[in-house]
């Protein structure tokens, strides 16, 4: 088992855990990506020096969840990987309650992990999950993160011991 395989197993798990969320202007569940947001380009946007667009085309579609490997350890007996689940939403309401959308997504994911305990019959949640809502003034964008640690089986030795 590898950390890459874990990330790929988490994607459909998180999509299923958040499929009933009704968020954003389109009232849709979050998009789920491995690593980082895909680059977006607006048709007809001109690029200036430094490959920066002349119009705002780098605003991601929201809501979203990013699955990011933070670190890991491997040994003959198995391994662990720390995975950050980064949530981004958009809410331009003057009541500034967008952080609740972030919290709801994090809670959906957290509860699904706690109920399942194991993802893809290989990856087991270990220890505590830690979450944070970023309370900086990035209005109308809102962000949070759930940190998880997963255990997985080791690689079997193919060469017999001498």
Model description:
The chain has 162 residues and is of the alpha+beta class. The chain has one domain: STM4215-like. The protein has helices spanning 3-17, 98-116; strands spanning 31-34, 47-48, 52-53, 64-75, 78-90, 118-119, 123-134, 141-153. A 6-stranded mixed beta sheet has the order 1-4-5-8-7-6, covered by helices on one side. Strand 7 (123-134) and strand 8 form a beta hairpin. The protein is elongated and about 70 Å long.
Layout of helices and strands, plus pairs?
Blueprint: H1 3-17, E1 31-34, E2 47-48, E3 52-53, E4 64-75, E5 78-90, H2 98-116, E6 118-119, E7 123-134, E8 141-153
Parallel strand pairs: 1-4
Antiparallel strand pairs: 2-3, 4-5, 5-8, 6-7, 7-8
Keywords for this structure?
single chain, 162 residues, alpha+beta, STM4215-like, 6-stranded mixed beta sheet, 2 helices, 21% helix, elongated
In short:
Helices cover 21% and strands 37% of the residues. By secondary structure, the protein is α+β, with helices and mostly antiparallel strands.
Mean pLDDT equals 85
Helix content: 10-25%
User: Globular, elongated, flat, extended or rod-shaped: what is the shape?
Assistant: elongated
Number of helices: 2
Order of helices and strands: HEEEEEHEEE
State the end-to-end CA separation.
25 Å
**Uncertain residue segments:** 46-57
CATH topology: STM4215-like
CATH architecture type: 2-Layer Sandwich
What class, by secondary structure content? alpha+beta
């Amino acid at each position: 088992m590898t950390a890459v395989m874990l990330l790929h197993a988490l994607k459909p798990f998180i999509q299923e855990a958040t499929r009933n969320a009704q968020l954003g202007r389109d009232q849709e569940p979050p998009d789920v990506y491995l690593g980082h947001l895909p680059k977006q380009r607006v048709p007809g946007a001109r690029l200036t020096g430094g490959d920066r667009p002349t119009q705002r085309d780098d605003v991601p579609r929201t809501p979203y969840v990013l699955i990011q490997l933070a670190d890991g350890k491997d040994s003959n007996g198995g391994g662990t990987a720390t995975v950050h689940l980064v949530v981004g939403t958009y809410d331009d309401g003057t009541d500034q309650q967008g952080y609740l959308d972030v919290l709801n997504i994090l809670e959906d994911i957290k509860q699904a992990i706690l109920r399942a305990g194991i993802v893809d019959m290989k990856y087991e949640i270990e220890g505590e999950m830690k979450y944070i809502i970023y309370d900086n003034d990035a209005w109308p964008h809102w962000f949070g993160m759930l940190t998880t640690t997963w255990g997985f089986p080791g690689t079997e030795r193919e060469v017999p011991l001498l």
